[in-house]
Write a structure and sequence with these properties.
By secondary structure, the chain is an alpha+beta fold. Helix content is 51%, strand content 14%. A hairpin with a 5-residue loop joins strand 9 and strand 10. The longest helix is centred in the last third of the chain and has 26 residues.
């Protein structure tokens, strides 16, 4: 939790009061930056706990998406309603919702084969085809086209001043370098953002990769955790999912261009993209990495190494994309010329 720990005893009382579930054991699991639990009773359940009011909207949206995808045959979790038929409950400034537990293993725990990776790309394309035009967001272009350099610079300069006081610390040195890199990149990103017209936006998962795919004993693949779902550029989700799903390029120093080409082609079999979508893929990803939250504040407050690793990963990705965006684009030049 961000400010307050929900005790297991409190959790057990809540489960019985709102769901009439008798929990024998509660296990907190490490799950990104959200508090998540596995609940053991007569059945197993998965629970998420939030502390921000805005998360209610996310819960409602996640429920709508799960219902829409399930209707079309996708394997996704099922949210369990309270005994009063609500999809979440409010308790002492906490917002909690339960899902039926999916018995299986995360695809992130293994090195998946090439054919399995290409199937995940095809599954993403199917999801975009299913959700396309069902949802819209009038503000969908704001983030991608309205970079305020002065505002971002001021924010970064404040962090830079703080971390510079402790520059002898190795970890702080890494952070200082990342901040300086972001400051250098802002004018370039502003220029890049002027190209983000006429691209394809879709309602999408927001964090699609093998770490959010589960496989059960019958080899059925489930898409889980729609916490970051929203209307985003389709090709951004596509390229990001490849980077996160392939262990070999997570560190930004090994990138299988041939495999990425196959990955994109598998996706396009299900959901076609236009010329600009393909061309801007690496630039959209670079823009998002540099401008999104690097978790400086969280690291300041907790000194948790996971935030540092997250920053390091982002830096590796951004340097790689900055240096190789045109090379990635060249993979698709002949296809673009043939098609357009």
């Amino acid at each position: 939790m961000k400010n307050e720990i929900l005790s297991k005893n409190d959790f057990k009382q809540i489960l019985f009061k709102y769901y009439e579930i008798k929990s024998k054991r509660i296990e907190k699991i490490d799950h990104s930056f959200t508090d998540c639990y596995i609940l053991y009773g007569d059945e197993k359940y998965f629970a998420k706990v939030f502390t921000e009011y805005n998360d209610i909207l996310k819960i409602k949206q996640e429920n709508e998406l799960l219902l829409a995808l399930k209707k079309e045959g996708f394997n996704v979790p099922s949210i369990i309603k309270t005994k009063n038929k609500n999809i979440y409950l409010t308790w002492n400034k906490h917002y909690i919702f339960l899902e039926k537990f999916i018995d299986g293993y995360s695809c992130d725990e293994i090195e998946i084969s090439e054919s399995e990776l290409l199937e995940t790309a095809k599954l993403l394309g199917k999801m975009h085809r299913t959700l396309n035009n069902r949802y819209d967001d009038i503000n969908k272009e704001v983030y991608w086209k309205s970079l305020n350099i002065d505002k971002e610079s001021r924010k970064l300069e404040k962090f830079l001043q703080y971390f510079s006081k402790f520059s002898k610390d190795t970890n702080n040195e890494l952070i200082i370098n990342s901040i300086k890199h972001r400051l250098r990149m802002l004018p370039k990103l502003k220029k890049i953002s002027t190209m983000f017209d006429d691209i394809t936006y879709v309602m999408t998962h927001g964090d699609y990769s093998k770490r959010n795919l589960l496989k059960d004993s019958s080899n059925n693949i489930y898409i889980i955790d729609f916490s970051f779902a929203g209307v985003y550029p389709a090709s951004w989700e596509l390229i990001r999912s490849y980077f996160i799903s392939t262990d070999s390029c997570k560190n930004g120093n090994v990138f299988n261009y041939e495999l990425f080409y196959k990955y994109v082609k598998s996706y396009l079999e299900e959901f076609p993209l236009n010329k600009k979508d393909i061309h801007l893929m690496p630039y959209l990803f670079l823009y998002q990495i540099i401008t999104s939250n690097y978790r400086y504040q969280e690291y300041l407050e907790t000194k948790d190494i996971k935030y540092l690793k997250f920053m390091e990963w982002k830096e590796n990705m951004s340097y790689f994309l900055e240096e190789n965006a045109s090379k990635i684009n060249n993979l698709f030049l002949s296809d673009i010329e043939k098609k357009f």
